[in-house]
Design a protein that fits this description.
With 227 residues, this protein is α+β, with helices and mostly antiparallel strands. It has a single domain (3-226), classed as Jelly Rolls. It is built from 5 helices and 12 strands. It has helices spanning 3-18, 32-37, 43-46, 77-82, 223-226, and strands at residues 51-55, 67-74, 88-95, 101-106, 111-128, 134-135, 140-144, 147-151, 156-159, 164-167, 172-189, 197-199. The radius of gyration is 17 Å and the shape is globular. It binds fe (ii) ion. Residues 104, 106, 111, 173 line the site of fe (ii) ion.
Length: 227
């Protein structure tokens, strides 16, 4: 993706998120220079990989295959291993109308995916088979706001604003906005996007960036290179 496109997506996302009364934390608005100047005391942001995350899954078709994410908080793998402390994470995301986040599952992370407002959030769901692949044969049961729902493999679960679903490790899922753009919350186990996403099709998790203008804010995937 071009950096100019990423900057434009950031502007539009900030406006969309604010329209629902949700405000991003202060570090969202720091420039790359401000982040560099504060590098010594922002280990908690950089190491936890908090911040802007805009992906086209490396395919260059953001409108059709892409997702806007902002990681608001993220706990510690050490706490997770020891079974106490900061074992949780939170993201705010936007799926635009018919913009697909491709079929994937997680190894460790359980996640509540929440329709925080806007249009309908559609999710296609499968179980895993014994090898961890998409199971085309078994019905899928998920909890939606505490209520179990069972549907055929590959059926679409639709969440209206206010509704959520709990996806456990092994639940394959693909999702998109239906009839409009959707603000999505994610409340989950500690998040590690470097190792915990298994995609059905071979695909990247992050964008390749073409630098055609200065970044307004850094992406999480910029931290290693820019800070
Ligand atoms: Fe997921």
């Amino acid at each position: 993706m071009k950096r100019s496109e990423i900057n434009e997506i950031m502007r539009a996302a900030d406006e969309f998120i604010r329209s629902f009364g949700f405000i991003l934390p202060p570090f969202a608005y720091w420039s790359p220079d401000q982040m560099r100047a504060r590098r010594g005391d922002i280990g908690g942001i950089v190491d936890a990989r908090l911040g802007w995350d805009i992906t086209d899954y490396g395919e260059g078709r953001f409108g059709e295959l892409g997702l806007f994410l902002f990681t608001v908080r993220n706990g510690s793998q050490d706490d997770l291993k020891r079974g106490g402390g900061m074992c949780y994470a939170e993201k705010i995301m936007i799926s635009r109308q018919d913009q697909v986040s491709p079929m994937h599952r997680h190894i460790v992370k359980a996640e509540d995916i929440i329709n925080r407002g806007g249009a309908t959030l559609a999710l296609e769901l499968f179980n895993s088979d014994a090898q961890g692949h998409v199971d085309p044969d078994t019905d899928v049961t998920v909890a939606t706001d505490g209520v179990l729902r069972t549907q055929p493999p590959g059926a679409i679960l639709r969440l209206e604003p206010g509704e959520s679903v709990t996806l456990l490790p092994g639940n394959w899922h693909k999702f998109w906005g239906e009839r409009g753009d959707v603000l999505i919350g994610e409340v989950s186990t500690v998040n590690d996007d470097l190792t915990d996403n298994i995609f059905r099709e071979p695909i990247g998790r992050f964008s390749d960036v073409e630098e055609d203008e200065e970044p307004m804010h850094l992406l999480v995937s910029d931290y290693d290179k820019w800070l």
